[in-house]
## 1
Amino acid sequence: MERKIVKVGNSLGVIIPATYLEELGVTHKDTVEMEFNQELQTLVIKKEKTTPNNNYLEQVIKRVVDGYLKEKGL
């Protein structure tokens, strides 16, 4: 998928499609790990490893509620 680089304040960014974020299981407040492979010139985005400090239960509940609301069309 081709994406355009956009200006975000003094930085540059890429908009990640919502379907990819859902597949990765992250929301706008989550932290992800980024890894750049110099040889392959690729950037990999991974979901941060979940620890008890990352509000894991809160994330699970939010995904369940969001899925339910989406299913009901709300």
Note: The chain has a mean pLDDT of 87.
## 2
Amino acid sequence: MGMNMQALNSKVAVITGASSGIGEAIAHELSAAGCSLVVTARRTERLNALCAKLPGPSVPLSAEIDDPATAQALLAMAQQTYGRVDILINNAGMLVSGSLDTIDIDALLQMTRTNYDAVVRTSYVFARAFKQQGAGSIINVSSVGAYLSHSSMGVYAGLKQAVEVFSTALRVELKGTGVRVGTIAPGTTETEIFDQLRASGKAVPADKTPALQAADVASAVRYMLEQPAHANVARMLLVSSAESV
């Protein structure tokens, strides 16, 4: 690691959707790098199990990410526990897909609240704090879906594309403040979302194509965070080498 790389030891990171999949892998990666963590998700027992396994300091907050109070609660928890906060990883997300005739519209709009509204709120709450302290990094987890148009996944893809556009605008607004904003768009990644699709009898692309592992995405996030302060990885697309996108 070059001398001008950002050392992550002693940094404080907040990770949403940390109880499984990519969020859990990011928690392990950043904890191993020396970060102190605040981790959030809905499942209390999964969060407690995660915190018990992490090598470094961590505190859990069981909450719904789309609850308007959650973003402020996460910020306060980081500041009260560690006296500071440096990094926000907006990873929490859900996947609702299906055809026009059968899709549950209410479930789609719940996905909007989770995958977009909550990202906006949490990004703004932390960006204000980061701007005030003159430093901080926000990474919003997007998806290769942002660049694809599958007919049954239009809302999911549209929300991920919205996260990309929003994140770019926020990054530009924060230029010169010391606050960095980036997105990472993982391709097909083996997570619990696939297990849910398999259980419902839907085809899972990873069953035909070797997929990324959550740890691959986590190490890419660490790479983004370790860049020198003057360098901002604005957008990263990480796909499986077997993927046709």
Note: The chain has seven helices and nine strands.
